[in-house]
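Quick one, probably user error.
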């Protein structure tokens, strides 16, 4: 028990009493050192007074100031940086405002407080719970990084400082991302940015994307416009596009909405006609019964044409008499005349086809038949 008490009363390798003696001696030396540093600053100010404009020394005098201070530093055996800092600190602390018992280092840190009265009041008021200023407390007061971080924000700042090298930052980030409890606390927007950065390489993105697309909850949160773009990218390959389109068109609602688009409907009709043409050509080229079928087709085509003419005449004979004593409006007459013109053009086309066997449609006739 006696041995444990002795250990508890020790600081490092010395007893608490001896430690107190050391602190007292060193404080005297620190105070002496502070006076020396302030004296150095005062003499440097005498050699080169501060030439301030808007809180900073004028740039046009900086070179001559540096030359003088550099010469002074070399003549007394100190570094230029030490002399320059001592001069600046002395300029911020008039002799009657320097606090005995507070180190030059603390004065130097608190010199960053811009307002004079605030600065002078600050050094007289140590942080709550402290009897004197320490360098770390002074750094906290002016918003600088501390040597021994305590709060989470101070620790974060320290990590950022240590990880300024990209290789170090990458190693630290990798270690942190292996800790689920850490990842869980990352903000959603930061996770999104991280994923975006990590998947900039196409190979990585390609490997990650399928995993996301297998998660219905993830897909459900994708914006419709992004889903459309994704489907377009995924179906660039014609084989994939054909397979997907076939599956989609088996869904009645999808098929109905797709066929509401004029271009889509035209492409489907065109595809059906083209498929029929290709099948017909293949049949005519390969089937031994093709000549006989061709004769039958011609007969069928003749009958279809006669039927179409008869149906038109019959329909007209039924509808026109019903219009007796009815006066059509201007717009209605225009529509009827346009359709009559299309009928006349169609009849001329039929006569040409029957007489010459040519069924080609010129541009003007095509536009007329299409109602343009």
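Nope, works fine. Designed sequence:
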């Amino acid at each position: 028990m006696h041995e444990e008490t002795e250990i508890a009363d020790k600081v490092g390798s010395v007893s608490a009493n001896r430690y107190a003696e050391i602190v007292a001696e060193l404080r005297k030396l620190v105070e002496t050192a502070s006076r020396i540093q302030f004296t150095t600053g005062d003499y440097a100010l005498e050699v080169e007074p501060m030439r301030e404009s808007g809180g900073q020394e004028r740039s046009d005098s900086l070179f001559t100031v540096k030359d003088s201070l550099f010469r002074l530093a070399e003549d007394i055996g100190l570094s230029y940086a030490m002399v320059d800092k001592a001069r600046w600190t002395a300029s911020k602390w008039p002799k009657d405002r320097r606090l005995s018992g507070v180190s030059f280092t603390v004065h130097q840190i608190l010199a960053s407080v811009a307002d004079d009265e605030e600065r002078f009041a600050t050094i007289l008021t140590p942080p709550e719970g402290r009897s004197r200023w320490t360098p770390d407390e002074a750094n906290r007061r002016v918003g600088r990084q501390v040597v021994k971080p305590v709060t989470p924000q101070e620790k974060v700042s320290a990590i950022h400082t240590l990880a300024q090298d990209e290789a170090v930052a990458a190693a630290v980030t990798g270690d942190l991302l292996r800790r689920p409890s850490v990842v869980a606390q990352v903000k959603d927007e930061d996770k999104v940015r991280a994923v975006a950065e990590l998947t900039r390489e196409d190979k990585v993105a390609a490997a990650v994307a399928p995993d996301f697309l297998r998660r219905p909850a993830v897909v459900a949160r994708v914006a419709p416009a992004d889903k459309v773009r994704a489907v377009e990218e995924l179906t660039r390959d014609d084989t994939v596009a054909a397979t997907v389109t076939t599956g989609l068109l088996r869904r009645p609602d999808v098929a109905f909405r797709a066929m509401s688009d004029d271009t889509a409907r035209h492409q489907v009709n065109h595809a059906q006609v083209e498929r029929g043409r290709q099948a017909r050509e293949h049949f005519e080229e390969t089937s031994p019964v093709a000549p006989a079928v061709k004769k039958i087709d011609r007969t069928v085509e003749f009958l279809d044409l006669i039927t179409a003419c008869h149906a038109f005449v019959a329909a007209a004979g039924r509808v026109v008499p019903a219009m007796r004593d009815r006066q059509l409006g201007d717009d209605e007459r225009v529509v009827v005349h346009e359709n009559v013109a299309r009928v006349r053009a169609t009849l001329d086309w039929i006569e040409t086809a029957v007489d010459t066997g040519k069924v080609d449609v010129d541009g003007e006739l095509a536009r007329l038949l299409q109602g343009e």
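Residues 327-372 form one domain.
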